Amino acid sequence: MNIRTQLTLRFTAIVATILLGFSLAVYLLSEDYRKEEFFNRLESRAVTTARLFVSVQEVDVKLLRIIDRNSIHALFEEKVLIFDPKDRLVYSSSENLDDTYPAEMLSQIRKRRILEFEEDDMECVGIVYEDAQGEFVVVASAYDRYGRSKLNNLRNVLLAGLVIGILIILATGIMFAGQVLQPLARINAEVQSISAGSLGRRVDEGNQRDEIAQLAMNFNDMLQRLESAFEIQQQFVSNASHELRNPLAAITSQLQLMLDKERSPEEYRQALQSLLDDTRTLVELTNGLLSLAQSGVEKQRFTFTQVRVDETLFAAQNELVKAHPNYRFLIEYDTFPEDEAQLTIAGNEHLLKTAFLNLMDNACKFSNDRTVRIGFWAKESNINISFSDNGAGITPEEQEMIFTPFYRGSNTQSSVKGYGIGLSLCHRIVQLHQGSIKVQSAPGKGSRFELIFPLFPAQKSF
Known about the structure:
Layout: H1 3-55, H2 61-70, E1 79-83, E2 89-92, H3 103-112, E3 114-119, E4 122-131, E5 134-142, H4 145-192, H5 211-243, H6 245-260, H7 265-295, E6 305-308, H8 309-323, E7 328-333, E8 344-347, H9 349-366, E9 371-378, E10 382-388, H10 396-399, H11 422-432, E11 436-441, E12 447-454
Parallel strand pairs: 7-9
Antiparallel strand pairs: 1-2, 1-5, 3-4, 4-5, 6-8, 9-10, 10-12, 11-12
Helix pairs in contact: 1-4, 5-7, 6-7, 7-11, 8-9, 9-11
C-alpha cells in the first residue's frame, strides 16, 4: 500500500470517527431530551387526572374517561391508573379494570414520591397525589409515537449525512494526499534521473522551510558528499597513475640496463643505490597519495575524539626533530587559557598531526635558516595556530592554486624536493575538522599559514 493510499485512509478514518462520535452524541442527547419531555407530559397528565378524580366531586369515572379520551393533550395509547391509600385500583382510563401493578411497585412509588420507568415500548410515570382523603398513587403510561418518529427521522438524517460525509472526505482526502505528496513525487522523478555520471545535478529544494524541503536539502548534501567522494576517487586514480608512472618507469629501465650485460660490483652497487632512491620516492609518493585520499573520506568524522591541540602540535614537532635535527622551532603564545578545556577540539589526532607536520616541514624546507615560527592562541570559540617562514614567498596568482593536489610553485620546483601533496592534504584535513586555513604571502617576504579550529562543542563557552 503506497503512502498516498495510507494517508487517504487514515485521514478518512480520523474524520469519519469524529463524525460518527458527533452523530452518536446528537442522537443520544436527542433520545434523552425526548424521554425527559415525554415523562414531563406523562406527569402532567397524571396530576391533571388525579386532581379531577379526587378533588372534583362533579366528575365521576365515566365523565373522566370521556375527558381523558377527548383531551387535546391526550397521548397515544395513554393509560392512567389511580390507586387509593389501600393500593386498590379506583380508576382506569381504559375500561379494563384488570390493569394493575404489583404492591412492591406501588410501595416504591410511595417511597420515592415520583418514579419514571419503562415497560416494553411504553414510558410510565408513577406519582403520589395527596388529598384530604389520603395519598393516592397515580400511574400514567403512553407510547411516544411522535417523539420516536422524530428520533427515527433524525437517525436517518445522521446516517445519510455520515455516509455522504465519508464519501466527501474520501474524495477530498485523495486530492489532499496527492497535493501533499506531489513534491515527493517530483523529488522521486528528479532522483531517478540522477546517475553516476550526473552527480552534479541537484533536486529542487522548494521553499527550504518545510519537511519535504529539508529532505531535498539533505539529499542534495548527500549528493555533494557522493560527488566529492567520486571526485576524490577519480582524482586519486588519475594522480596515482600519473605520478607513479615516472618512478616505476625509472626502476624498470634501470633493471633492464642491469640485466643487459654483466657489470662490476661497484656498478651494481650504484645501480642498487639508485633503485633504492627511486623506491623511497615511490613509497613517499604512495603514502602521500593514500593520506590525500583518506583525508577526504567523510567517515573519518566518526573517529573523532577530544584532542588537545597543543599536545598534538608538540608531538608533531618532536617527530619532525627526530627526522631533521637541523630544523628550528620558535613557538610564541599570544593567549594561553587557564582552562585546559579551551585547548580541546573534536578531531582525529593522527590527521591533525599530519597537517602540523606538513606545514612545519614546508616552512623549514623553504627557509634558508631552516626555521619555522609557530604562533598559538586560544579564544572563547576557536583555537588559532600559525606557521611562518622567511622563504621565497608565493605570488598572489599562485596562492589560489597551492591547495590543488600536485601543484608546486614556480620558485620551488627545482630548489626543494616535493610532490605538491602536502598543502592539499592540510587543506582537506582542516576542512574535515570544520576549520579554515588562511594564507598571507608575498614574493621575497616569506609565507604565513594560519589554521582556525572550532572548540569541541561540549566545551564551547557561551
